[in-house]
Amino acid sequence: MQERIKQIEAEAIKTISGCQSLQSLEEARIRYLGKNSDFFSVLRSLGTLTPEERPIIGALVNTTKANLEQAMRDKKVLLLQAEQKQRIEVEKIDVSLPGKGVRRGTIHPLSQVMKEAQDIFLRLGYEIAEGPEVETEYHNFDGLNIPPHHPSRDAWGTFFVKDEVVLRTHTSPVQIRVMEKRKPPLAIIAPGRVYRRDSDATHSPIFNQLEGFLVDQKITFGDLKGTLTEFLRQMFGKDKNVRFRPSFFPFTEPSAEVDVECVMCSGRGCRLCKGSGWLEILGSGMIDPNVFKAVGYDPKKFSGFAFGMGIERIAMLKYKIDDIRLFFENDVRFLEQF
Ligand code: PHE
């Protein structure tokens, strides 16, 4: 019996020390100390021993059991240490590696052009006014000398919100709103979003305009020409020629379309300017007496000029962008270039 116990102990100690994982250690515990182990059957047979043998074998069984349990505890500590060491190795963080960079945003090209245009007029002494994008038909049309059913309303593909309420088709209604509230002299610019039923490579149903108007006594077409020439030269280059072509707007009379020398070919003629050498930039004119009457100004006493321009168009020409939709898709690869 003693032999048998010693043999089991030796075998168990060997197995335990050879365990490579906590799982194989647990398997060893079940095999050598579990209910179905040889050691357990020895324990069960203690009853068959003589009273003399019993205490000797009993003591041996106890110390053997204690030895094996101790060996397993020691092994477990070693295995846990090894496991932890391995985990630290695997999960090691190299704090000297460069971090994930936070990409810095850039100012949207439309915002840049809008700011540039505004700054030019702010330096000329203009102030900024704003109006609602959801506008009354009166402010968008009637007050601007565009009566109901007048064919010129078709020039703007209007979105109707409901009866007599529209998404403004231009920033000109801000002229009416400011003049309704204030008296001349006025030098105002009105930036903002406008809406038209129009969509292709050069038209977007939503786009930005910058409106401007100046009202005082004895304002002439010469003031308009001087102001807009100065603006376009600051915007496109000091050396650029500017020309004024007769045009029509219901709210200005006379009206002029203002062109700047082509930014690509400097007037020689190219694809951008369709061979003409000129780029159409803004609409303008002397404020129509009917507009002054609508806001309660005396057209005999006051005169003024107004102008409006599309910011997307200016940005496209300045940065040579051929599709307006790029401004609204907000692909960072596009935006990062500005
Ligand atoms: N509101 C006009 C447009 O959107 C532009 C304009 C403004 C023309 C002011 C003349 C004077 O087409």
UniProtKB/TrEMBL annotation:
Highest taxon of source: Bacteria
Tell me which residues bind Mg(2+). E253
The Aminoacyl-transfer RNA synthetases class-II family profile domain, residue ranges: 111-329
- Cellular location(s): Cytoplasm
Q: GO MF terms on file?
A: ATP binding; magnesium ion binding; phenylalanine-tRNA ligase activity; tRNA binding
Q: How is the cofactor bound?
A: Binds 2 magnesium ions per tetramer.
Q: Which UniProt keywords apply?
A: Aminoacyl-tRNA synthetase, ATP-binding, Cytoplasm, Ligase, Magnesium, Metal-binding, Nucleotide-binding, Protein biosynthesis
Mainly localized where?
cytoplasm
Enumerate the cofactors the protein uses. Mg(2+)
Q: Could you tell me which Pfam families the record lists for this protein?
A: Phe_tRNA-synt_N, tRNA-synt_2d
| Reaction catalysis annotation | tRNA(Phe) + L-phenylalanine + ATP = L-phenylalanyl-tRNA(Phe) + AMP + diphosphate + H(+)
Q: Name one GO cellular component term.
A: cytoplasm
Q: Which InterPro entries match?
A: aa-tRNA-synth_II (IPR006195), aa-tRNA-synth_II/BPL/LPL (IPR045864), Phe-tRNA-synth_IIc_asu (IPR004529), Phe-tRNA_ligase_II_N (IPR004188), Phe_tRNA_ligase_alpha1_bac (IPR022911), Phenylalanyl-tRNA_Synthase (IPR002319), tRNA-bd_arm (IPR010978)
Q: Which GO terms describe its biological process?
A: phenylalanyl-tRNA aminoacylation
The protein's Enzyme Commission number: 6.1.1.20
The annotated subunit structure for this chain is: Tetramer of two alpha and two beta subunits.
Family the entry assigns: Belongs to the class-II aminoacyl-tRNA synthetase family. Phe-tRNA synthetase alpha subunit type 1 subfamily.
Designated name of the protein? Phenylalanine--tRNA ligase alpha subunit
User: What is the protein's species of origin?
Assistant: candidate division WOR-1 bacterium RIFOXYC2_FULL_41_25
Q: Taxonomically, what lineage is the organism?
A: Bacteria, Bacillati, Saganbacteria
